[in-house]
Amino acid sequence: MTFNFFNVIIKEQTYLNLIYLLLAFPLGIFYFVFLTTGLSLGIGLAITLIGIPLLALMTVAWYGLGLFERIVSMGLLDLKIDSMSNNALREKTIWKKLSKHLSNSATWKSLGYLFIKFPLGILSFVLLVTLLSVSLSLIATPIVYYFSIIFPNFNFMVINGIQIINGYGSAFVFSIIGILLLFISLHILNGLAYLSGLLAQGLLSGSGKKSRVVKKRKKK
Q1: Structural contact between residues 66 and 114, judged by C-beta atoms closer than 8 angstroms
Q2: Neighbours of 51 (CB within 10 A)
Q3: 211 within 8 A of 135, measured Cβ to Cβ
Q4: Is the Cβ–Cβ distance between 114 and 150 less than 8 Å?
Q5: Using CA atoms, how far apart are residues 178 and 170, in angstroms rounded to an integer?
Q6: What integer is the mean pLDDT of 23-36?
């Protein structure tokens, strides 16, 4: 049990999860801006009939972004997500293609996922930056304290004129706390990536079946 707690730092999947959480922030902002701009523009121009084909193109665009997110989630989170099937292209006329596309649940689940990605990306970024920066700052306490001795004008861990760390002993205590916090933080971030994976499995699958929480089997 103890080994499972500490070996999180040597697992490749941990760092893939961190990359996924880091990418969630810029992607979430892009999706939100793109969707709100395109949809508002299309709805606003619908009275002139120009907005109708624009809205139709938006549905295709967000479906494509959903496919992209499915690939990213499967690649970085090492998950199995059922295919987002869409038989609209098999229809002969444009109207039937569009009707089939709009009646596909995956089209609307993709839209929901892309909107959810915005707050989820913000949460991921805040937790990632906060937890890792605090952990690494505490770990580096002895080094920073050493520089505070060399440069007397360098104030370090001073609150109300009182220096909290006044020796290497207390500096190393903070460093140990930082190391423990780093392992805890990685587990928290892995948990957030896991929940993000569940969301992707639920909304980026067009099978109509209950989402499977399955890890892809790695080849030996």
Answers
A1: yes
A2: 18
A3: no
A4: no
A5: 12
A6: 96
